[in-house]
Input
Amino acid sequence: MLLVGTGMPALANDAASLRVSTLLGEQRSAVLLFESDELDPPALEMARSLSAESARVAAEPRGSEPLDLPLARSIASRISIGETLAYDSNLFRLSGPAAARAAGLSRMGDWYSATRLGLGLDKSYAGQQWVLDYDLNLVRYGAFDFLNNNASTAVGRWRWTAGPDWKGELSAEHREALDDFAYYRQQQRSLGVTRQYTGSAFYQVVPDWQIGVQAGQGSRRYPDGSRPTNEIDFTGVDTVLRYAPPSGSVVALTRRTVRGNYPNVPTTSGGQSESSFDQEELFADASLPLKSGTRALLRVGTVKRTYGRFPQNDYSGRNGMAGLEWRVTPRTQVSGALRYEVEPAQDFVSSYVATKGLRLGALWEYSPKLRVESRFEWRDAEYRGDPGFGVASGTRRRDRGVLAGVTGMWQIGPQTRGIASLTRENRDSNQAELSFNYWTVAGSLQWMF
Output
């Protein structure tokens, strides 16, 4: 299954960022089609649970009891309602008050509210599962009301099996979201729409061994006309060999090919924008249980990208990640991961970015109804390469960033929970206009029926 997340680059050419993930049983891997290497802020949801009881209480009660809806009794359903109130001290990720005044803004921060309405349907029969999910998010801002938007997400999946040896999935997704202002350096609304269609099939050759193919195609569009040259069409195919013995270990070897095309990029003789790219990857993932509640995570791979118009933009590199999840006590878990990644970054003085990162996390379960999660991230990104456009090259861009966040969840009742989050991020760049810092505070009430 291929999934696309969102994030926006600050650079003029490589625009929107699409991260494609594949699901290999329980194992996820991700490939970056083009730049999206922000310090991902913690969302208003908990990452995972430690105990089975906590997982049962905190999880959405999908499929537990059919509601009084005009549905067959074999279909389970859920309705969710959420209300979030948040404050962001630097909504547009500006370098400071002077940059805000230059952009004609009277302030840097703003309050906003987000109302979420969700509907889910889940039907299983004869080894097949059909899942439909729909979410509508209504976001309203205080001072910056021109950012008000209604964004919807609709996902349909058919998880199929054929006999004891074949399984797979077909899915269709429609996702709408505002561009991230850490990348989209304009003070206007830019609502991106991503559509994706995917399919996968896995065959169990012998016990514990599977081979499979996963394929998908999709697009990113801006119906409001805010970023026509950032629209993209993409396709991808994975060939996977996977080993998953009863011990709980998972090892997967994946060969991936991806192609992207920018349909609205001008291709005149004087244009300096890329119109398409091809990307190839080979990587291995491993998830290895060391003892009860403790797991090692490893990833190594290579990536190569070639562009359609300017071969000087081509690049290749190696990626790697090593992490550990450690259950210190029955109620406490800590984790850490080191990574090195090579990703595209199109501008006039660089063609790719090499990123080193560190992530630390902790999860404390005070009781089945109260949990607290904290997170720390450090990132060092060096912009490299030589696009060779004949433009005088200045100092290479280098960004360093730190993000810290804490999130708490309280299960108020069987169908009601409250979540609070506090986040602080600071980025320093040798290009002063790209530096910023901000903090956010948010609280949410969620009801699930």
About this structure: Confidence is low (pLDDT under 50) at residues 1-37, 45-49, 53-74. The longest helix spans residues 52-58. The helical segments are 52-58, 97-102. The longest strand covers residues 110-125.
